[in-house]
From TrEMBL:
InterPro entries reported in the protein's UniProt record: Aromatic_deC (IPR010977), PyrdxlP-dep_de-COase (IPR002129), PyrdxlP-dep_Trfase (IPR015424), PyrdxlP-dep_Trfase_major (IPR015421), PyrdxlP-dep_Trfase_small (IPR015422)
Name of protein: Aspartate aminotransferase family protein
Cofactor(s) annotated in UniProt: pyridoxal 5'-phosphate
Keywords: Aminotransferase, Decarboxylase, Lyase, Pyridoxal phosphate, Transferase
Gene3D superfamilies (UniProt xref): Aspartate Aminotransferase, domain 1, Type I PLP-dependent aspartate aminotransferase-like (Major domain)
Similarity comment: family membership: Belongs to the group II decarboxylase family.
The keyword Transmembrane belongs to this UniProt entry's keyword annotation: no
Record organism: Corallococcus soli
Length: 459
């Protein structure tokens, strides 16, 4: 062992205390930290021969990079659909690194039992039937990938092929039906060799970004019973709208199609009695994707996939080697053999705050989104592009093109009080504000609105 490693080991308590102090300093300053920044990166350093030791490496990182980190964990980072990190989840995540468990294999630790228990807690929170089996993955992109790989295996088996063993060479194409699926779904189809262009567009209902069930039925009838994968959304990315999962699910059952529900953030509407009706019909799904680092407010990276077709899932992801042993280990459910103990932060926050705490978190986010929507509708500078149905506010400048919108975003970033992401919706360049951080409260709304009004006046 090197002298530096021996020295750091002897000072481990002090080093961890320095890391704790650094984290607390960062988190305590969140109200003043810019929601997002875009500094010029420093000139890259070379690898030191002797090494600096942990204390000096931490100090160097803080000098070079900490000021350039965004306040994405803070209350006014409304970009993408990003949650923060609850205190319990942060505790759990720190312990994940300390414990450093291998959760691919269940033979040497109870860590896999924690993952299975956390999946059961989430299944209960979402109202999924007991026959849904799950796994933690790195995010909704991989959750969609796992679900669609399982759907591909199912569909090809119906056609008499084992794609996990034979590959796709020379095999027929599976029908994939959907209305404007999320980019992560298209990415998954690309990785799986099915292709982004595999999606056959199903028309939307007039004026809404949701699937027209009658149009879907016509497509399924035309397939004449051939296997198909139907892509549904529980929380469309611009508006938060939901496909009619009951109607779509009934059609999938009637025609023998696979129903995949991308519920990256919207599935957490199940926490709220006021919004749970949006998920009516979720039990018809064959697979479901969710994202823990969104409304569950656990650290990156955390995704969850559920399917009710575990045999096909394990055929797709089975890893066979003598050193791996036998048994129903979680490595057979995901692309990874080496898996971080990412279930622990989720388990911690679910146990710490329970059903009531997560209901309150979801309902507050929805209330804040409605309040911002009402204020923007009354603004002389902004107009809503869609009704606020959940936690997403989709809006635009009343006048101006994409260039002016981009100038507005640049002004907001320079101001630093709030971070939003761009979009294009209903034929217009727009902006999105997503409320999913547990820290965001009513006191933030006047600050957000003041920043928006100031930016609009400056462009």
């Amino acid at each position: 062992m090197s002298d530096l490693l021996l020295r750091d080991l002897s000072r481990l308590s002090d080093l961890l205390e320095q890391a704790r102090a650094s984290a607390l300093e960062f988190l305590t300053a969140l109200p003043e930290r810019p929601a997002s920044v875009r500094p010029a990166p420093p000139t890259p350093l070379g690898l030191p021969d002797a090494g600096l030791g942990a204390e000096d490496a931490l100090a160097l990182f803080r000098r070079r990079y900490e000021a350039g980190l965004s306040g994405s964990v803070g209350p006014r980072y409304l970009g993408f659909v990003t949650g923060g990190t609850t205190p319990a989840a942060l505790m759990g995540d720190w312990l994940v690194s300390a414990y450093d468990q291998n959760v691919s294999h269940g033979g040497d630790s109870l860590a896999t039992s924690v993952e299975r228990e956390a999946l059961g807690l989430l299944r209960s929170l979402f109202g999924l039937p007991e026959d849904f089996e799950g796994a933690f993955v790195s995010g909704a992109t991989v959750a969609n990938l796992v679900a669609l790989a399982t759907a591909r295996q199912w569909g090809m088996e119906r056609l008499g092929h084992d794609v996990s063993e034979e590959g796709l060479w020379g095999l027929p194409r599976l029908a994939v039906l959907g209305s404007a699926p999320h980019a992560s779904v298209l990415k998954a189809l690309s990785i799986l060799g099915m292709g982004r262009r595999a999606v056959q567009d199903v028309p939307c209902l007039p004026g809404r970004p949701v699937m027209d069930p009658k149009a879907l039925e016509a497509r399924l009838v035309a397939l004449g019973g051939a296997p198909a994968i139907v892509l549904a959304s529980a929380g469309e990315v611009n508006t938060g709208e939901f496909d009619d999962l009951e109607a779509v699910g009934q059609l999938c059952r009637r025609h023998g199609a696979w129903l995949h529900v991308d519920g990256a953030f919207g599935i957490f509407a199940a926490c709220s009695p006021a919004h749970a009706h949006l998920l009516r019909g979720l039990a018809h799904a064959d697979s479901v994707a969710a994202d823990g680092h969104k409304w569950l407010n656990v650290p990156y990276d955390s995704g969850i996939v559920f399917t009710r077709h575990l045999e096909q899932q394990e055929r797709s992801f089975r890893a066979v080697a003598a050193y791996l042993g036998l048994g129903p280990d979680l490595l057979h459910r995901t692309p990874e053999n080496s898996r971080r103990f990412r279930a622990l932060p989720a388990w911690m926050t679910l146990m710490a705050y329970g059903r009531d705490g997560h209901r309150a978190l979801v309902e507050r986010g929805c209330a804040l989104a409605r309040a911002l929507g009402e204020a923007l509708a009354a603004s002389p500078h902004y107009a809503l592009l869609a009704p606020v149905t959940l936690n997403i506010v989709c809006f635009a400048l009343r006048s101006g093109d994409a260039a002016r919108r981009d100038q507005l975003l640049a002004a907001l970033q320079a101001d630093g009080r709030v971070h939003l992401t761009p979009t294009h919706y209903a034929g217009r360049p727009g902006l999105r504000a997503a409320f999913s951080n547990w820290r965001t409260g009513e006191a933030d709304l006047p600050i957000i609105l003041a920043a928006l009004e100031a930016a609009a006046s400056s462009v």
